[in-house]
Design brief:
29% of the residues lie in helices and 29% in strands. It is an alpha/beta fold. The chain has 2 domains: 143 residues, Quinone Oxidoreductase, Chain A, domain 1; 140 residues, Rossmann fold (3-Layer(aba) Sandwich), CATH 3.40.50.720. Strands 3, 5, 6, 7, 8, 15 and 16 form a 7-stranded mixed beta sheet that branches. A 6-stranded parallel beta sheet has the order 11-10-9-12-13-14, with helices on both faces. Strands 2-1-4 form a 3-stranded antiparallel beta sheet, with no helix packed on it. It binds NADP nicotinamide-adenine-dinucleotide phosphate.
Length: 330
């Protein structure tokens, strides 16, 4: 009997996106010089957006969904990879222009893959996922602008989400004093267990605010955009820095020039999808060194492969706490 592989596939029919499980043949699992037995994937906000088609993330008539995967190389024509290597894929157009990680078997280009550093299992890699790797990129961006623990308090918005929870864990492990902003005040103890010193209600930041406000934050990691980011910019200390990677509140940025011109503040964009390979490798090395894997375990929600379509709606409604790991299974 011909071997087939279970995959979650998106098809665009008459402009509408249909999402469902299919059994794919070896010829349908993608193109490239490396084949991977996928062990784990994850559910990110962007996966939810892709399945809802609220933003046209899927840009092909048919592809395998999932922006992340981690697994073991089963065949390779690429000199960087050998059979048995543990690898991770984050972004690089997966689930946008070519096949992604919601599949038992994936063939892809070696240039998209990072070899996992020793000390991170494929399950832990997906517990981190694109959200956690983006949190690491955000922290590295702050560091490169000279932010150190002595600079003062660092705010993390969208605190209970994937980027937020990993950012809190990383920053507190690195010695920063962290304030978490959340819409789920019932998660305050959880956020403190990750390392937040203080927790504020996101309602303090989510409404239109003054152009300049009392300085509160030396730096911030934002994944919300919209009024939240505008208020954070208005509340940065002199020479304060905020990274912006996401749009959980909205795509808009109703800010103004005053904090930039009068307080010397910096707004730093963070993109994980097309981050160059050396930066990715550095981020994964740093995650292996700086992330407390016991804390990571506390962030995990396990999602069976079959439940991914239903869970996608929940992540868009902010109903998933921490990091959602999908066990693909053979
Ligand atoms: N640029 C990149 O490469 C990149 C990479 C990864 C992620 N992202 C983006 O970053 C964002 C977060 O991703 P994620 O995976 O961490 O998502 P997530 O797990 O769904 O977390 C987002 C969090 O934002 C908060 N939130 C939700 N709705 C909100 C609203 N209306 N106003 C204010 N806060 C709200 C919630 O936290 P609380 O309940 O604690 O308030 C939620 O848990 C998404 O927009 C994602 O697309 C971008």
């Amino acid at each position: 009997m011909t071997q087939t592989y279970k995959a979650l596939v998106a098809k665009r029919l008459d402009g509408k996106l249909a999402v469902g499980f299919e059994q794919l043949s070896a010829a349908e699992i993608g193109e490239g010089d490396v084949e991977i037995a996928v062990e784990y994937s994850t559910l990110n906000y962007k996966d939810g957006l892709a399945m809802s088609d609220a933003i046209p993330i899927v840009q092909q008539d048919k592809l395998i969904l999932g922006i992340d995967m981690a697994g073991t190389v089963v065949s390779s024509d690429n000199s960087r990879f050998s059979v048995g290597d543990k690898v991770v894929l984050n972004g690089y157009g997966a689930s946008e222009t070519h096949n992604g990680g919601y599949t038992q078997r994936l063939r892809t280009k070696g240039e998209y893959l990072v070899k996992l550093p020793a000390g991170i299992s494929t399950r832990q890699a997906m517990a981190i996922g694109t959200a956690g790797y983006t949190a690491m990129l955000s922290v590295m961006r702050l560091e490169r602008l000279g932010v150190v623990p002595e600079s003062g308090v660092v705010l993390v918005t969208g605190a209970s989400g994937g980027v937020g929870t990993v950012a809190i864990s990383l920053l507190s492990a690195l010695g920063y004093r962290v304030t978490a902003s959340t819409g789920r005040m019932e998660e305050a103890d959880f956020l403190k267990s990750l390392g937040a010193s203080d927790v504020i209600n996101r309602a303090e930041l989510s409404e239109p605010g003054e152009m300049m406000q009392a300085p509160r934050w030396a730096a911030a990691v934002d994944s919300c955009g919209s009024h939240t980011l505008a208020n954070v910019i208005a509340q940065l200390h002199y020479s304060g820095v905020v990274t912006a990677c996401g749009l959980a509140q909205g795509l808009d940025l109703p800010s103004n020039m005053m904090p930039f011109a009068l307080r010397n503040v910096s707004l730093l964009g963070v993109d994980s999808v097309h981050a160059p390979m050396p930066l990715r490798e550095e981020a994964w090395r740093r995650l292996a060194k700086d992330l407390d894997m016991a804390k990571l375990e506390a962030l995990l929600v396990n999602i069976p492969f079959d439940d991914v379509p239903a869970a996608a709606g929940k992540i868009l409604q902010g109903q998933i706490r921490g990091r959602a790991v999908v066990e693909i299974g053979s």
